[in-house]
Amino acid sequence: MRVYFLLLITLPLFARPFFEADEFKRHREKLLTMMEDNSVAVMRAGETVVRNNDIDYPYRPASDYFYLTGYDRPESRMLLKKGTRPSFILFTRLPDAHSGVWNTAPYSMDEMYERFAPDTVLPLDQFEAVFKKNCRGVSSIYFPFEDKELAADIQKWLQSPWGRYPRTWHDLKPLTAEARLIKSSAEIAALEKAVDITVAAHRAAMRNVKPGLFEYQVNALISFVYRNMGSVRDGFPSIVGSGPNSTILHYEKYDRQMTENDMLVMDIGAEYAMYSADITRTIPVNGRFSPEQKDIYTLVLKAQQAGIEAVEPGARFGDPGKAAAKVLKEGLKKLGLITDPDKDWQFRVWMMHGVSHWLGLDTHDAGSYLATDGHGGRLLEPGMVLTVEPGIYVSADIFDKIDAIYGKWIPEEERVAFKKSVYPAFEKYKNIGVRIEDDILVTEDGRRNLSDAAPRGIEAIESLMALPASFFNP
Ligand SMILES: [Mn+2]
Question: Has this prediction a pTM greater than 0.90?
Answer without folding.
Answer: yes
